[in-house]
Amino acid sequence: MKSIRTCSVASFLLAIALVPVMSQTIPSADAKNHIGEKATVCGMVAGKHVAAQSQGTPTFIDLDKPSPNQTFTVVVWERDKETVGLLPSSGQLCVAGTITQYRGGAEIVLHNAAGWYVPKAQLSNDRHYTNSDGQQVHSPAYSSGGAPAGATALCGDGTYSFSQHRSGTCSHHGGVTKWL
């Protein structure tokens, strides 16, 4: 009986040791404070460019509005582009890996599609209204991850409208800033 318990305890401890340590999720502005750590870094895509004159032809994606001391860049080398897949050029993006420092900025180099994802936008409310066609439409709401699916306009107060008609869209939210 004692050997069975010992074996079960040993199996349990081995199973715990094999569970991967979950990396933390941090905003891109804080990445510079986590150099050398494995983490998931999330932010809004602020720019994307290819260094055609550089050996290896890397693609650089800057998250959030870059400032001189707070740049976070996602790097995809030409040899990895096929396995990484097509990264978004706008909206929210999260990347996972070891944060390294290059020329004063923090970066993560992606090698495959498992290293990134687009988080699902969370809306600030779940209210709906009935439009002039009798259809249920989501009320204007703030979004945590860029333009949510089904949004038709960005309102002046930062909410997203799901209106099916242009007339009256964002009328109580500062007017339409941009049609989507």
How do the helices and strands line up, and which of them pair or pack?
Blueprint: H1 2-18, E1 24-27, E2 38-50, E3 59-63, E4 72-76, H2 81-84, E5 92-98, E6 100-102, E7 105-110, E8 116-117, E9 128-130, E10 136-138, E11 153-155, E12 160-161, E13 176-179
Parallel strand pairs: 1-2, 4-7
Antiparallel strand pairs: 2-3, 2-5, 3-4, 5-8, 6-7, 9-10, 11-12, 11-13
Protein model, in words:
The protein has 180 residues and is mostly beta strands. It folds into 2 domains: 21-117, Nucleic acid-binding proteins (OB fold (Dihydrolipoamide Acetyltransferase, E2P)), CATH 2.40.50.140; 120-180, no CATH class. It is 12% helix and 33% strand. The protein is built from 2 helices and 13 strands. The strands form 3 sheets. Strands 1, 2, 3, 4, 5, 6, 7 and 8 form an 8-stranded mixed beta sheet that branches. A 3-stranded antiparallel beta sheet has the order 12-11-13, with no helix packed on it. Strands 9-10 form a two-stranded antiparallel ribbon. Strand 11 and strand 12 form a beta hairpin. Residues 1-22 have low confidence and may be disordered.
